[in-house]
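Budget justification aside, the reviewers requested a transparent look at the raw inputs and outputs of the sequence design task funded under Objective 1. We therefore reproduce one unedited record. The lines immediately below are the structure tokens for a 205-residue chain.
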């Protein structure tokens, strides 16, 4: 069985248990593959924030065979599924599944500011995503987030991003898909991220 077919079967299993939306999974795979191409040279490592059913994390892992990755999710059902998917795809030597809240895991010394790339698809509102993601992102690294079609730069205000050590967002498009790419330019202050639940209840913008 070729690698694309294996990946499609894994994503179909994710859809069947409600970790991906209904309908053909090819669109999820193609969207993530286009995203990988947009990001350019493969990073040494990456973190998929709120990996859910493994999109884009599993697709990126396949696209970047030398990269190490962390698939992070707080839901036990997703963590269990992702662990099985990583094993079935033969990725366990370089892809780790971590279960926990991003606000807490972002203070783990092994994960904090440790990744040159953090990706997020459907994780949370922009302010929450930026606050949580910056905790994992190394200075000089990039956060990339899948956006609604067309994109809206107003969702990522420069003054809010600057509080988290992040540069202004750049919007990139591939056909109908939109993404933002945001560089981290300064270390994150110790006060970020705030305690579990706080970013969502009191977003900084």
């Amino acid at each position: 069985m070729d690698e694309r077919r294996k990946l499609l079967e894994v994503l179909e299993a994710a859809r069947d248990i409600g970790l991906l939306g209904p309908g053909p999974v090819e669109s999820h795979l193609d969207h993530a593959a286009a995203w990988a191409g947009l990001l350019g040279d493969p990073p040494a490592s990456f973190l998929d924030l709120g990996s859910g059913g493994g999109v884009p994390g599993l697709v990126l892992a396949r696209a970047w065979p030398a990269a190490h990755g962390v698939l992070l999710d707080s839901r036990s059902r997703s963590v269990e599924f992702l662990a099985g998917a990583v094993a079935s795809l033969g990725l366990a030597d370089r892809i780790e599944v971590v279960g926990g809240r991003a606000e807490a895991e972002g203070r783990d010394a092994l994960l904090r500011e440790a990744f040159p790339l953090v990706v997020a698809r459907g994780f949370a509102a922009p302010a929450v995503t930026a606050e949580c993601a910056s905790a994992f992102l190394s200075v000089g690294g990039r956060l990339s987030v899948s956006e609604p079609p067309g994109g809206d730069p107003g969702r990522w205000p420069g003054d809010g991003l600057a509080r988290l050590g992040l540069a202004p967002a750049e919007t990139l498009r591939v056909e109908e898909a939109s993404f933002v790419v945001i560089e981290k330019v300064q270390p994150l202050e110790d006060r970020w991220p705030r305690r579990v639940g706080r970013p969502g209840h009191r977003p900084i913008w």
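The chain has one domain: 3-190. The chain has a mean pLDDT of 96. Computational costs for records of this kind are itemized in the attached budget.
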